[in-house]
Every structure is written in structure tokens, then in C-alpha cells.
Amino acid sequence: MDADCVLLLPGVCQVLLDSGRSLPDDTTLEKLLDWLTGITEADKEGSLLEVHPCLLEFISFVVCKTSSDPSVISFTLKLCGLMGATEDGFKRLQESSVLDLAFSRQHWHEAGLWEDPCIRIGWIQGLRSMLLHSKALSFFVQADLTAQLLQLQTDTSLFVASAANQMLAHILLFFQPVMSAGCNTIGKKHWEDKRTQASIIGPGVTMDTSEDYDAVLAVTSKYLQESLVPKENTQFHQSLQTLKLLGLLLAQARPPLRDQLLQTAADPLEEVVTAGCSQLTLPLMDVVLAAYSSSTGEGVPDQHVARLLSSMLTMSKPADLIQAAAALLSRGHPDSVHAAQAVRILLLPLDLITGQALLGTNTAADKHRFSMVDQLKSKTSCISMICVCLTNTPQISLMPADLLPCPSASIVTAVLSLLRICSGDSSSSPAGCPEVFRNVISSGKVQKSALEALTGLSSSPGVKGMLIEVLAVLIEYLNHPDSDPIVLHKSYQAVVQWLSVCVDLSFTTDKLQQDLVEVVKKRVCDMRWEVRDSTVEFLGKLAGVLVSAKVAPDTSEVLLGGCCSASLLREALQDPESYVRASAISALAQTLAHSWQQGAAPTQQQTDIVSRLLEILSQDTEGFARRAVVQYFIAWFSSRSSSTSRSPSTSTCSTSPLLMNSVSTVLSLGSADLDWEVKVHTLELAELLLDEAFLGHRGYRKGSDTHLALPHPYAVVSDQTCTLHTHNRKRTEGMDSDLAIRLKTLVEQGVFSVLLSGLVDCDRPVSLKACQLLIKFRETVCPVSIEAPEETVAEVSCELPGWGWGQDISKTLGMTMSDQAKVADIAANGAHVFDSEDCKENVNKGGDSVCVRVCEVLRSLGLDAKLDILIQSSDHVHNSPLSLLQDILTAGAAHSHPDTQPGQEVIVDCY
Amino acid sequence: MPEIKVTPLGAGQDVGRSCILVSIGGKNIMLDCGMHMGYNDDRRFPDFSYITQNGRLTDFLDCLIISHFHLDHCGALPYMSEMVGYDGPIYMTHPTKAICPILLEDFRKITVDKKGETNFFTSQMIKDCMKKVIPLNLHQTVQVDDELEIKAYYAGHVLGAAMVHIKVGSESVVYTGDYNMTPDRHLGAAWIDKCRPDILISESTYATTIRDSKRCRERDFLKKVHESIERGGKVLIPVFALGRAQELCILLETFWERMNLKAPIYFSTGLTEKANHYYKLFITWTNQKIRKTFVQRNMFEFKHIKAFDRSYADNPGPMVVFATPGMLHAGQSLQIFKKWAGNEKNMVIMPGYCVQGTIGHKILNGQRKLEMEGRATVRFFFPPQNTSLMSYRFTLYFMLADWLCFLDVKLQVEYMSFSAHADAKGIMQLIRMAEPRNMVLVHGEAVKMEFLKGKIEQEFNCYMPANGETVTVTTNPSVPVDISLNLLKREMALGGPLPDPKKPRTMHGTLIMKENSLKLVSSEQALKELGLNEHQLRFTCRVQLQDPHSDPDTLHRIYTHLKSVLKGYTIQHLPDGTVMVESIVIKVSSSAEDPNTKVLLLSWSYQVKLSSSESILP
To answer: What is the rounded CA–CA span in Å between residue A175 and residue A226?
Structure first.
């Protein structure tokens, strides 16, 4: 704890003690506890109570007085537990008789505070923090707290009930005895016998905990036995909570605890399974699966548990059965018999509705068939069951063939039939169940689930040949006048996914392509922006998929039947909704990526697009579209950079003049933008220009933050990196002049101005990025490790405008505009203002502008110190413990100040 | 009995992140999905694991309804839909759907600005989430599924804020979100039907307050701004992107016009245009005055308020600047604050609540010396290294000089809450409007809620659950039944007083339950509709009595006795040797063993339970 905090802590305790004073913020106490927890964890040996006696006084006072605000008492109980987490702290608390009172339920009950859930939470969490050593466990047992904790398991507060369960699980798992190696006594001997063979090696536990542990276990086991089975309808909550506790325990219990638990719970569990309580199906399945997994961990599954699992998969209510089967698959299928059984159960609704005979002709084995049909006739349960079934179909189709009752292609066919039924066409399901059709027709929920399932099924084995059929249904959906935006969105996703798997267009037909074109043309003009956006995104993704799959360049055009997706996208640039405009720009970038990679000369159409994009960047009122424009140019610039292997010096010359001219404009507009992300993207573009100019030059490395991070001890260090900071003066004249030319080009392109304006930006991500790039720049052109840069490099100058960022930079450099006339050396490494031929003209035009040497600016800005500040979070000062303590003190003082008027109270409202 | 359950995961006895689960008629509805700006970790979002029970949130919830665009009501929405994976229906009004992403983007920026931030949504996630939103119109009933319907009502508070009436069968709940019962400069007052919900879940931010007139606060605000401008000072008003900023802009614009003031007013980061766009688009959601004058002059096209450029902050002379964010914790508002804090002529007006750890929070609590992250200027704060006056404190400062400095706050700090919540009077007004059977208070501080609860409980059941606690209300649903016109006419023909809703009358008929509908018809019609034959059921009983007379004499004696005690009843002695009392038939026969023992056979078609005092037998 730092010295300032130590000084403030007693005062803070005093403010908290005065419960009449309201705290400055509802998060204060939690933050204070976070801080103290951090300190305790960092120094497990030392006792905070010893170093800061005010804490013990505070705890004692609050616990005895009980008149404090409930939130302060709750905090105190948690703090008390935290302090008692070490044996030293525990001893101190016990010596001052605080513990008995703090964790006495009776005490809080009598004070009329136990009803407040925050007190109960504090009580549980305090105990939870403390129970890390044997003395705490003894205290827990001697105070007979197990029974009290078990009572809280069914508390009216979800939070309290859940915390009680976690706490019980913590005690039994943390202190659990561990069987010594090689000792396998499963099902052979009683618990007591096992204990004699077990060696206790639990964390921080000694032999003297065993008695206490046994006491807790005995009470808990008795409770488990008595409360697992609901006696009446009203006791479902208790059973549910007990199942959750058992689930928590079995998931982590090791022998002998696991065996003891299984032995205790086996009969009641069987009773619960037989009772068939729908509300308990999921937690029950969790318990059974946890028991099953833990017992199979040793090779042979416990027969009793295996029987329970089988019973779960033969429950009488179809809805429960489906849930159990889905749970079994989602938590990992334990064995092929049960997995195959679960698969049959899950496919049954789909089989029944569509009549696709997924389960084969021998359906007599599916004894739930009739009850399932009955359930499917009710709309609510039909939709719920079919959705669970659909959610699981992709996973089912990827399972080993011997577990499947049918090939994956049949599942796809069934899902397609279901989709047709949903849109009112049952012609493909003559063997289906017409009474159920009305429940799924037009159901958005079923449609969405089916489309998601279809998307997932695209990667199933042996389904590629179904592309035509799939596309036909999806196009039908895209065309359907009643399809809602989410259904359309999911339909597009499915099309993209299927095409990304089956890129061979011979699988499609001309008719399909024509239909797709028509529907896309229609949907791009939809009234709803959500639909237009999904359509535009679809065009981009389609292009992206086909490019990444390395298919023929114009495949997307072919697929869209010659309809020019670029022209549709160009129209979408005018969309009234900014999201759509932004998507159109991104989609255009993906559509044109291939031609960029080929280095083809820009067409007139592309030139028009560029002018429109620059217009958007300068005029669009929404940030999304402007961000997309800058990213478009980043994509363009990097795609041509990556595709052309050329020497850095010639790269700029080979670049399309359209791109290079646009880049300068983008840099200038982007850096002056109001949106912070546009500015960050502009800096990313500037970084690409830096990369291009300096890549291969000594000391330069790609990536903006590589110079910041300390090299990993085992990292591979490139030759380029090794040259960093190891410059020598033996450079050739040619290299220096080359560097100077590049530097000058960057200044002319506006890269240096973008970096400087970013550096003084009020948004931290912008200034951080700019600062990182400037340091990289400096390390390349005038590293601090050398005394002075070469003359040609040193002479390169740039212009600082007399307003905005230029003014801020000038101030940072330590000069005032009134001093411009004289050349002054302001700081030790200050920059010179001078008349330069390069920027004299501009300076004269601009009036207030000044010329400065690039290298001097780079060396004088104090970039390293600035970076240290910027890499901190924006609120690292104000979220510090010191700030927190000061806030509590100030709030306390403000509240007790005699001049405070009641009307001036800051009311917590909304934001 | 059916039950409605209300469980706040947030906003239960606090004003943190609103997130309330309602279970009604087997449906689960989530009301709002807010975030807490005071935390940087997962605690800022509601913890859905308490309700999902290992299942998917989509399987558990039937729908999510967002009341308005404030982050404490919608801030966790992209987290819930794109990160937790909720894929069910999301409802909000059109303006909320349009403005929500702006606020979310605004906050995302602040989050990105923080070091080590993880588990936060991206811009794409915000968009994907908004695409799933189904917009609501006011007073339009939306059928979520066959059983669940929702209807939005105007709530005031901010543009697009709505209260929502949720109905499943005959059970219903109203959730108010944040609302305001008095109109302000740009919005109207909340209003709702007399819908008599089973539960009204109401915010209670100002549960103990009877707020002073808003006009007074406005006057006070203008006076302070004016005074500061007059003495040549600069006024900074930190605001969030949209909301009360627009209200204050209207206020200043009108005042500048009236007073013919020349000092510039600026609004940062192009938000005026954006706000203008949305207020124009949703003009029907503003108050009557704005709607009326819209044709002549759009109140949101400000003449005096211009876009701000960062260089303007250094301009000499007075000015007023609205800058984001509203808690002075980052960005432009903080940058301007740092520049202006040292001059006592300047002023900062905080128009809303600030969470702990922000500069806004500190200055509102009266801190006048703020620790800041230093910039290049920091070195000028410290004495040169060779000074002989260097104390321990100075040494400490010098060591920290690379990154810390102290900012003296000399400017005037004012707090003026312009948030538009219903006060205690307003809440009672809404209760009288909706006439609920039960009240649940949320979105308020426990102590204040307790006070209001005491008031409300004089008339209704009132609850104030803490976060995680469930309120269970048993309902007594009225089941609608169709009644045949013929049956009604027959009942009317029977005479008696005309139907009076306050005096229920018993009506007899046959209830037919068929294809999820209930119908009350006459028995004859029921038989006809169901194609059944009529069977008559008669009850019989035998009573023995001692009488030495012959059977006919005994019967006659009984007839005479009944005639004397049952006045007003139709009693007949029939030639077939029976007596009839209304429809009850009495026959007499002698016992085979003993002729003096007579057996009376009674037979009747309607079972009537008589009390012992009503015995008709002698």
C-alpha cells in the first residue's frame, strides 16, 4: 500500500463508520474491497490488520454497533472474511472477539438486519473469503454454520441462494481429502474405510481438519438425501438448488468425496428421475452427466449412474426428453449407445413433421413417437421442441456415421422441407404431419433456427451436391414478401456459407443465378434499412469468399449472372442510412480487391467511385461511412503493397496515381475528422505509407508497437530489429540522400502532419497511435542514439499551421507564436524556427504558419515521456486507490459541511 | 392460482443498470438491459447466468423490451445479443432504435480508451444488434406470439422513451422505464390508459422529492450562464451526445435571441447536426409547442449554436461550450476543462450525475486540487532542480513530474440536474391513471423507496425488491366467456332489475369449452350443439315413520301438514296416490313386517341442501 493511501485509510474508515453520511457512489465499497483484496493477495504472509490497526477498529465498531448503513455492514463482513483469510489475521480477529459476532446470524437477526439480502450476501462472501485454512474451518464447524448455510440455499434472493451453493461447494471441494495414488476402492468399501486409506493433501489442510470436514460433509450429505426429492409442488425450488449444488460438487469432486456423494445421492436421484418433474430436467441432467463423466474418468462407468442416464433418455414427457438429449450432446456424449439414443430423440420431431424418415423405417424402437406427435400438435411445445432439434442438427451431422440413423444429406433434406413448410409449401413433405404444419407455418422462430441449422450443416460430410436444392430454398426465402429482416439476414448468411464450401459453380444452374440476381436487385432497394444493409453486406461477403477461395476473378459476377454488383453497391453509397453506406463502401473494397491485387489500371467506374468516396469522407454526417472510406483506401493500399514485390524506392512510382492522389486527400480529411475512429484509421493509412517508405531501411520494423514491447526472451529476432539502435556513421552518401528523399515525400504527402495533429488529439487512442508512429519515425530517420542526423536528412523541414494542432505542437515545443520572429532555443532540445525554401511559400500564404525541421521536432517533442503517459488508461489516475480514498473523504467532508444545502444534493439518476 | 414474478437483476433498490425479469402467464420478459458506468469489468453488465440455468438465454426469454436510449437502460444490449447470444425478439420505439447506437458508440469510444479493456462489444456488434430490433409505435398492440402482447405508451423523459403494457391472457404488467409527468422544453408528459394492470413496475428516482418547478431551475441556469458570460468568463457544459443537451440548447438559443447576446455557443463533435436530424425525424415525439411551431420554425435549427473546433477553446472572451462526454472523464470535455479550470471567471455546469472516479464526480464533491496526468506543460509547475526551497512534498512531485501534475480548480462548479424523472407527486399521478392492483418500485435508492412505499401501501400492495429478489404476486384472472344472445334474452325476460355492473346477478346455463373458447348457453342449446339426448336425473330417499293409519290416510295427513307449513309453494295431491311439492314427489307404502311403519319415498330432480331449521318433515 503506498504511503499516501496509508495516511488516508484511517480517515476513510471514519467516514464509513458514520453511516449517516451517504457514500459518494454505489460502487465505492466494492472498489475499496477490490483494492484491499488485491493487497491481501499480493502479500499473503503479512497481515493488514497488524499494519493498519484502523481496519480492526473499524470492523469491531461496525460489528458491535450494528447501526451502520446495511451496505457498510455488508462490506465490513466481507472485509472481516478477507482479513481472516490468513491465519495471522484470523488469530487477531478472534483475539478481539470480532469473529463470533460478525458471523453470528442471531446477532444480525436481533438487530433486524438479517432480512436485508445485502447483509446475507456479506455474511456468505465473508465466510467464503475466510475459509482458506483449517482454523477457519474449525470456527465454521464449531459455530454450526453448515446448517445455516444450507438454509440460505433456498433464500428468496437469487444472489444469496447462488452464493450459498458456491460457498458449500467451496468448503467440500477445497478441503476435500485426496485418495493416495493407486488406491482404487470404488464401490468396494464404505466411506469410513476409504478415509483410513486416504492421505489428506488438500491445499493448506492438515490432518486436524478431517474431523471438521467430516462434520460438514455429514450435515450436507444428510441434507442432500432429504431435499433432493421434492415432496410437494412447492419444493421444486429446494430440489433445484440441491441439484445445482450436487452438480457443482460432482463436477470437481475427486475420490473419495465423489464416491461418497454418489452413494448418498444415488437413490434420491433415481427417485427424481422417475418422478419426471419437467422443471428439474436440465439441472438433473447436469448432475447425471457430471456423475457419469466423473465415474468414467476411471475407465468403467458406474452402473448405477449409467442406469440413471438411460432413464433420463426414456422419460415419458417428450419435451423433457428432448431437453435431456440436447444436454447430453452439448455437454459431450459419454458413450456411443447413449449418444446414438440422444441423436434419435433429437431427430424425431424433424422426422415426424417432415416425414423424411430420418430414423429409418424401423420406427417401432422409438416408443416416444406417439406422445411426441401429440406434443407437436400444441403450438408452443412444437416450436420449442423443433428449435432444440434444429439447434443440434449441425453437431449431429458431424458425429461418426455409426451413431447416425441416416446420412447427413437426409438431415439437410429434412431441414429444407421444414423451411418449405414454414413458408406454406408442404408439397415436398407428403409423408409429413399436416396437423403440425399449421404450428410452424410463418413461425419466425422456427425459420431462424432452421436457417441457422442449414448454415451449420454446410460443412457436413457429403452434402456439397445439395447446393442447388439449398440455394433454391434460400432464394425462395429471400424472395418471400413476408420474410422479416432477421430471416433475410440469416438466409444471406446461409447462401454465403454454402457458397464458401461449394465454390464450384457447376453445381448451380443459370436459372438459380438469374433468380439470385433478381432477388438481390430487389432487396437492395428494400424499404427497411436492415434488409438493404444485409443485402449489401452479402455482396461484399460473397466477393470476399470467392476471392479467398481463389476462384476465377469474376466468379461473383458470374454467380450474379452478369449483374454488376459494383453498380448496385455504388447506388447504395447514396443510401439515406449511414450503416448501409458504410457497408456498401466495405463491400466495394471486397469486390474490387481482386482487381487491385492484379494491379489493373483503374477503370472510369473505379475513378467515379473514388471521387464519391472522397465526397463522403468530407461531407457525410455519420462516422460509420467515413470510417469505411478510410478503411477502403487502407485495403486498396495494402492489397497492392502485398501483391507487388518491388523495391521500396520504386513502389510509389508503380502505384496508381489515382490511389496516391487520393491517399493525400484522405490523410488530410481524415486527420481533421471529428470521429476518433476515422482519425485512428487515418493513422493506420499513414503507417502503411511509412512502411512503404522505410521498409528495408535499417532500424525500421513493421507494426506500430513493436518498438514498445520488450522482446520476449525466446523470441526470434530479425536482422532488421538487430540494427535498431546500432547505427554507425559508416553510411553511404547515397543511402542518406535516399532517406532524405523519402522523408521529404512523406512530408509532402502530409504523413508527418497527420502524425503531429494526432499527437495532440484529445482522444487518447488517436494520440497513442500517433505517438507510437512518431517514435518509429524518429528511430528511423534520426535515432536518439546518434548525436546528429546526416545533414541532408536534418535539413528536411515541415510546416506547422498557426492554428489548431499546429499551435498545440508549437506550444509543446516550447515556443509561442509571438516569438516566431526570433530563432530561439527554448528547451534543451528545442526546435528551431527558420526560413526554409521548402515551406517559405506556404508560410507566406498561411500567415501564422511556421517552418520547423522534422528531425528537431521529432527529438524535441518528448515522445518517450508522452508515450509513457498515453499507454496508461485514460482514467488510471482517477481510478487509482488514492483517488478512491480521496473521493470517499471528500464526499464525507462535503456531507458534513455546515454550508451544504439540501437542495444541492447530487441525485443518482441516469446516463 | 396463477402468479406473476418480478425479479430485478439490476435497478432493485439502486440506480445502476436496469434489468428486470418478469414471468407472467408462462412467459419470461426482460425489461431493459442496462449497464453500470461505474465499473470497468464484467460487473458493469447484468449477470444473466442467474436466470438461464445452463440453458440458452434465447430459449428462456420470450422477448426483451428496451424503454429508452440511456445507457443504464440499453448499454448492455449488444453484450446480451452479440456476446451472450440472445437471439430472440428485441423491442424498442423508433427513436430509441435510431439513437441507441449513437450512445453505444459514444460509450464504446470511452471504453476503447481504457487500458486492458476486454469483453466489450465492437461497432459491428452494435449494428448487428440494432438490426435485430423490432420497432414499436405508440399505442399499437404488438403480438409477440399467440399469447403475449405488448403496447407502448409515451413516457416523456427523453426522445422516444416509452412505458410498456405487457399482457398475457387476462394478466398484465406495466413497466414505466424512466418517465416524467410534467412536460419540458422539448417533450410532453407521460400518459397511460386506465389499464388496471396486476402490477405497475415504476421507477422511483425522485421518490421522496417534490421537485421545484422546472421553470425555476431553468431561470437559475440561465442566470448563472449569463452572469458568467457578462464577467467575460467561459462556460463549459459537459453532456452526453443526445438527450438533455438538446433541451439546454433550446433554452440557451431562446435566451440568446431574447437578450440579443453575442457570445458564441458551441456544441462539440458535430452533434448538433445529428441531433437536429433525429429531432426532425421524430418530431411527433416532441411536445405540442414544438410540433405546432415546427412549420414556421424548427426549434432544433439553432441560430446561435455553432460547431466547435478545438482551437476555439483558446479564443479570448466569453463563450459557452457543450462538450462530450458528460462526466468529464475523457475526450473533449476534459480537454476543455483542463484549459479553463484555472480561471475563476469560468464556470462548469454539470447537468447530470457522475460516477465515482470521474473528474465530474470529484469536482461535484468539492475537490479543488486534482491530480492529472501530466503533459509537456507539467515541468513548469515545479521549481527548478537547484531550488533551495525544495521540501519533501516538492521532491515527491518532482519524482512524479514525468507523468503527474496537480490542477487547481478555480472555476465555478455548478450542479443542476435537468434529468426528467417523475417526482413523488408524479408517481402517485401515474398510479391514479393506471389503477394497478400492486406496485413494484425499482430504479431508486432504498431509503427513498421506503418512504414512497409507505405512502403507496395505504392504497395498494407495494414491493421494493432488492437485486436478485423475486416479488411474487398471485393473480385472480377473469376468464372471458362468450354468452349466447338467447340465454341473455331469456334472463332479461325473467324480469328483475336491469343489468347493473355494480350488482352481479347469478345466471344459469351450460358452459361449453370447445377449441380454446368458452361459451355459456342454455341447456337446450348445449344439447342441440353437442348432439346429445336429454336425460333426467332424479334423487330418491326413503324415510320411515310410525303411523297406524292406512297408506292413503297417511299420505293425506302429510299433504295437509305440508300445505300448512309450506305456504307459497305449489302442493298437489294427485289421483295416482302421490303428493307433489313443486317437483318433489312423495309416495307412501307400508312396511311388509309392520303395517304401522310407513315408508315415504321422496324423489326430486334438483338437489337442494336444506339446513336443519328448514326441515319440512313433522
So the answer is: 24
Kindly state the cell numbers that stand for A620.
Answer: 457525410
Neighbouring residues of B598: CB distance < 8 A, sequence distance ≥ 6: B544, B545, B546, B547, B551, B554, B588, B589, B590, B591
Verify whether the Cβ–Cβ distance B131 to A533 is below 8 Å: yes
Contact across the interface for B376 and A894, Cβ inside 8 Å: no
- To the nearest whole Å, the CA of B196 is away from the closest chain A CA by 27
Q: Of the candidates B40, B113, B309, which has its C-beta nearest A804's C-beta? A: B309
Q: Which residue of B has its CA nearest to A71?
A: B446
Q: Do A621 and B374 touch (CB under 8 A)?
A: no
First to last CA, chain A: 34
DSSP state of A346: H
- This prediction's pTM: 0.85
Nearest in space to A454 (alpha carbons), one of A503, A393, A399, A504: A393
Enter the C-alpha cell of residue B433. Answer: 391513471
Residues B519-534: tens digit of each pLDDT: 999 988 899 888 888 8
Q: What percent of chain A has pLDDT above 70?
A: 80
Which residues in chain A have Cβ-Cβ distances shorter than 8 Å to B105?
623
Instruction: Please judge whether B365 and A677 are an interchain contact, meaning their C-beta atoms are less than 8 angstroms apart.
Output: no
- Distance, in Å, from the CA atom of A456 to the CA atom of A391, rounded to the nearest integer, reads 9
Chain A residue nearest residue B204, CA to CA: A909
User: Cβ contact (<8 Å) for A879 and B40?
Assistant: yes
B228, B347 in Cβ contact below 8 A?
yes
Q: Which residue from B minimizes the CA distance to A874? A: B114
Distance from CA of residue A142 to its chain's centroid? 44
Residues 6+ apart with CB under 8 A from A102: A59, A63, A76, A77, A80, A93, A126
**For A856-891, b where at least 16 C-beta lie within 10 A, e where not — what string?**
bbbbbbbbebbbebbeebbbebbbbbbbbbbbbbbb
Q: Which domains does chain B have, with CATH numbers?
A: 3-210+419-474 (3.60.15.10), 214-378+399-415 (3.40.50.10890), 481-494+509-530 (no CATH), 538-609 (3.30.310)
Option in B88, B274, B357 nearest A883 (CB):
B357
pLDDT at A206: 55
Quote the distance between the C-alpha of residue B366 and its chain's center.
35
pLDDT for A380-411, tens place per residue? 899 999 999 999 999 999 999 988 999 999 99
Q: Do A762 and B331 touch (CB under 8 A)?
A: yes
Nearest-10 crossing angle of helices A303-312, A281-296: 150
Return the number of other C-beta atoms located less than 10 Å from residue A37's C-beta: 15
Q: What distance in Å separates the CA atoms of residue B27 and residue B60, rounded to the nearest whole number?
A: 9
**Helix (H, G, I), strand (E, B), or coil: what is residue B418?**
coil
In B89-212, at which residue ranges do the beta strands (DSSP E only) sit? 90-93, 133-136, 141-143, 148-154, 162-168, 171-175, 199-203
Torsion of CA B302, B308, B314, B318, to 10 degrees: 10
Q: Which of B377, B415, B468 comes nearest A117 by C-beta?
A: B468
* Paired sense of beta strands B571-574 and B162-168, if any: unpaired
Residue B387 phi, psi dihedral angles, 5° rounding: -65, 145
Q: What is the mean pLDDT of residues A177-187?
A: 52
**Residue A689, pLDDT score:** 93
Residues 171-230 of chain A whose Cβ lies under 8 A from any Cβ of chain B = none
A812 Cβ neighbours under 8 A, 6+ residues apart: A760, A861, A862, B375, B376
**Could you tell me the sign of the dihedral formed by the alpha carbons of A639, A642, A644, A649, in that order?**
positive
Catalytic residues of B: 203
Residues of A (488-507) whose Cβ lies below 8 Å from B: 489
ipTM of the assembly?
Answer: 0.88
Distance CA(B266)–CA(B304), nearest Å, equals: 8
3-state secondary structure at position A708: coil
